[in-house]
Design a protein that fits this description.
The chain is α/β, with parallel strands linked by helices. About 30% of the residues lie in helices and about 25% in strands.
């Protein structure tokens, strides 16, 4: 089914009786050429690009719950390409280009809003770091504008500019940054993959990975055994657990990152804003709710909920930056399980088991990476060669120390990323 303004008008006038399911609900077959474990944004986009770019349609996506029920539905929906390091910067730049054509390509409204992202800095040292970051962005054709204090005030007059502890010196403005609707991204890719013949199998938990003579042969699931020539693991915070089924021990810790949303308010925040001294970030959704978050909870966990001290920390940062939000009622909070690597950068690579592939370690960058991650992972699975923009995301960098990509510059330690 194609979407258009005319179709929406017609269905509105006829009781919405003509809409059909957006994808099939097939039973799993006994064998596939490729099995993708994980029905989130990255897994669904990988399946879509396997079919679209490489013509591989004997593919199954296995999801233990419902499609889009993991981290793709548990984030603050920020899309940006303001990374600094060689390798990361090019990758996220490529992802931004895919984002900008995504709705037309999928014929699906993912509500991509390039409202601009503003990263505040509060010292001379931070300014220098942001200047370097902006130069890196501009050197490859992306947009970056350095704002002084008055330039920030013109765009964000509601911030606390009299804060003597964390004065606002200026900001790095990324006009092409913004937000998208998280579940719509999952639905759009699911619909596109299904239209090309990919089987999307929900309520199908993988319980084992079959390996014989150093090569993967299939998976065991709660809906029976499935044979496969190639298997891709794309399960975010559950990566260590699933990889262990194949005997792999990965350099990943799983941590909780909380997010919050308030009651609906009249439009008041036009941009995505990042607070340089509190790791606080905020935007306003199309429904009016203020969506915001902060630091990791700083303890390893598989629970999709957070702790109260971090709630207090995030609220304090928000009030420090913009006291105007103090009377807004917080409706709900949630936690996403972050798969954190020691250097804060992802992994898209083959494993030591023939036919078994990894796409993981996205730390804070998972949602904004969905298009390029899927595109790169599909390229790797189809060709056994890394995609050009993802050549630095090798697994072996954690074994030999070469090629570590310490995006935050805080040292290759889990608890600092």
């Amino acid at each position: 089914m194609g979407f258009s303004g005319f179709r929406v008008l017609k269905e509105g006038l006829t009781g919405n009786s003509g809409w059909t399911p957006q994808w099939r609900d097939p039973a799993p077959k006994d064998e596939y050429d490729i099995v993708i474990i994980g029905g989130g944004g990255h897994g669904l986009s990988a399946a879509y690009y396997l079919a679209r770019e490489h013509g591989l349609t004997n593919v199954a996506v296995l999801e233990k719950g419902y499609l889009g029920g993991g981290n793709i539905g548990r984030n603050t929906t920020i899309v940006r390409a303001n990374y600094f390091l060689e390798g990361n910067s090019q990758f996220y730049s490529y992802s931004m280009k895919l984002w900008e054509g995504l709705e037309l390509e999928l014929n699906y409204n993912v509500m991509h809003s390039q409202r601009g992202q503003i990263s505040l800095f509060h010292s001379d040292g931070q300014r220098d770091v942001f200047v370097r970051r902006g130069n890196m962005m501009r050197s490859q054709g992306d947009d970056a504008v350095l704002l002084d204090r008055e330039g920030v005030r013109k765009l964000l007059p509601y911030l606390d500019y009299d804060n003597t502890r964390f004065p606002i010196y200026g900001a790095l403005y990324h006009p092409r940054g913004g937000t998208a609707r998280h579940d719509a991204v999952a639905w759009g890719y699911a619909r596109g993959a299904d239209q090309r013949g990919v089987d999307l199998i929900q309520n199908c938990e993988v319980t084992g990975i079959d390996v014989a003579n150093g090569a993967v042969t299939g998976v065991q699931t709660t809906r029976g055994a499935i044979c496969a020539k190639k298997v891709g693991i794309v399960v975010a915070g559950r990566t260590s657990q699933v990889a262990a089924m194949a005997g792999l021990r990965l350099p990943i810790e799983s941590h909780i990152l909380q997010a919050f949303v308030t009651e609906g308010l009249k439009p008041c925040i036009d941009h995505v804003i990042s607070y340089g001294m509190g790791h606080f970030y905020i935007s306003q959704s199309d429904k009016g709710g203020l969506v915001f978050g902060g630091d990791l909870d700083m303890y390893a966990s598989y629970a999709q909920r957070g702790n109260l001290p971090m709630v207090e920390h995030v609220m304090e940062a928000g009030m420090t930056l913009m006291p105007m939000i103090g009377k807004a009622k917080v409706l709900r909070s949630w936690g996403g399980i972050m798969d954190m690597t020691p250097d804060g950068s992802p992994i898209i690579d083959k494993t030591g088991i023939d036919g078994l592939y990894l796409d993981c370690g996205w730390c804070y960058g998972g949602f904004k990476a969905v298009p390029a991650s899927g595109f790169s992972f599909a390229h790797l699975i189809a060709t056994d060669r890394p995609f050009e923009a993802a050549t630095g995301f090798r697994l072996d960098r954690f074994r030999d120390g070469y090629g570590l990509m310490d995006e935050e510059g805080t040292g290759a330690q889990h608890n600092l990323h």
